[in-house]
Amino acid sequence: MDPVLIAEAVGGHGDSLAKMGLAIGAGLAVTGVGGPAIGVGLAASKALEGMARQPEATGRLLANTLIFAALAEALGLFAFLIAILLFLQLQ
């Protein structure tokens, strides 16, 4: 939804209310970047542990870990993109 339309519907203080909502939403979206970072770190840790315990499964563990890391990083990039888009609406 367009924040300008929301501001017009609310009335006199609608513009500041809409900007406050956008700022809060952008801040919350930025916190979504930390989750994938923790997930990638845990996945790498467990993959290295598995490779140390069973060296013959190194290739399969490495492939699965890289796929998981790519998917987790994509989620982090989506959260960052949403934060940037919300922040640009404040301008």
What is the helix/strand order? HHHH
User: In CATH terms, what is the architecture?
Assistant: Up-down Bundle
The structural class is: mainly alpha
Major sheet description: none
CA gyration radius, whole angstroms: 20 Å
Q: Specify the helix fraction band.
A: over 70%
CATH fold topology? F1FO ATP Synthase
**Uncertain segments of ≥5 residues (pLDDT<50)?**
none
How many helical elements?
4
Outline: rod-shaped
- Please state roughly what percent of the residues sit in beta strands, choosing from under 5%, 5-15%, 15-25%, 25-35%, 35-45% or over 45%: under 5%
Question: What is the CATH class?
Answer: Mainly Alpha
Number of extended strands:
0
CATH H-level homologous superfamily name? F1F0 ATP synthase subunit C
Global mean pLDDT: 82
Question: What is the terminal separation in angstroms?
Answer: 16 Å
Whole-number tally of structural domains: 1
Structure description:
It is a single chain. The protein has helices at 3-10, 14-31, 34-53, 58-89. With 91 residues, it is mostly helical. It has a single domain, classed as Up-down Bundle (F1FO ATP Synthase). Helix 1 (3-10) packs across helix 2, helix 2 runs antiparallel to helix 4 and helix 3 runs antiparallel to helix 4.
Topology at a glance:
Layout: H1 3-10, H2 14-31, H3 34-53, H4 58-89
Brief digest:
The protein has 91 residues and is mainly α.
Could you list some keywords that capture this structure?
single chain; 91 residues; mainly alpha; F1FO ATP Synthase; 4 helices; 86% helix
